Amino acid sequence: MSENARVFDANNPADFTDACKIAQRYMPKQQYQCVLMLLNGEEGGFFKEKLCEIATTITAMTRYGGESDRPIEPIAQLHYFGPGYDGYVCALSDEPDEDEEVLEAYGLARFDHFGGDGSIGYLSIAEYKTTRFMELDFHWQPKTFDEIRRDFHNA
C-alpha cells in the first residue's frame, strides 16, 4: 500500500476536487471529459462516487522505482480496455514527469488477436490517456494475474 493512501469523500467538496485531479491524471481524456458532463445529469451521484473511488484506489496502489520494487504477487487494481486490448495495472511508477503525469505502470497486457496469457511488463498510462476508444473500467474488481488468465481461458 502506498504511503499516500487516502480515502476520498464525494460529499466533501475539497475531497471531491482532489479526487478529480487524481482521476484526471489516470483516465483517458475523452472518458474524463464525458464523466464531467455526466456529473450534471441524473446519474451525477454515481459518477461523483466513482471518481472518488478511482482516486482512493490510485492513492493506495503500490509504487515502484525500479525492477526490484515490482510486486511479487501482482493484483490488478486498474483495468484499461479498448478494441482488442486489455491492460491490467498492479503498480504505478513513482517517477512522474515534469507535468506530474504518471507515464508508466507495471502490469499485464493482452491483445485479443494474439490470444495466450498476455505479457507482463511495463504499460504506458500516457498512451492509455491519449489512445482513442481506450477506457478505464469503472466496474473492475481487483484480481490476481492468475485469476485474469483463468478468465482468458474460460471466455
Description of the molecule:
With 155 residues, this protein is an alpha+beta fold. The protein has five helices and eight strands; from the N terminus they run αααββββββαββα. The strands form two sheets. Strands 1, 3, 4, 5, 6 and 7 form a six-stranded mixed β-sheet that branches. Helix 1 crosses helix 3. The radius of gyration is 15 Å and the shape is globular. It starts with 12 loop residues before the first helix and ends with a helix.
List the helices and strands and how they pair.
Elements: H1 13-26, H2 29-38, H3 44-60, E1 62-64, E2 75-76, E3 78-82, E4 85-93, E5 104-111, E6 119-124, H4 125-130, E7 135-136, E8 143-144, H5 145-154
Parallel strand pairs: 1-4
Antiparallel strand pairs: 2-8, 3-4, 3-7, 4-5, 5-6
Helix pairs in contact: 1-3
List keywords for this structure.
two-stranded antiparallel sheet; 8 strands; globular; alpha+beta; 5 helices; single chain; about 160 residues; six-stranded mixed sheet
Helix content: 25-40%
- What is the strand tally? 8
Oligomer: single chain
CA distance, first residue to last residue: 31 Å
Unreliable stretches: none
Estimate what percentage of residues fall within beta strands: 15-25%
Q: What is the ordering of alpha helices and beta strands?
A: HHHEEEEEEHEEH
Largest sheet: number of strands, sense, barrel closure: 6 strands, mixed
Individual helix count: 5
What is the 3D form?
globular
Mean pLDDT: 88
| Gyration radius from CA atoms, angstroms | 15 Å
Structural class given helices, strands, pairing?
alpha+beta
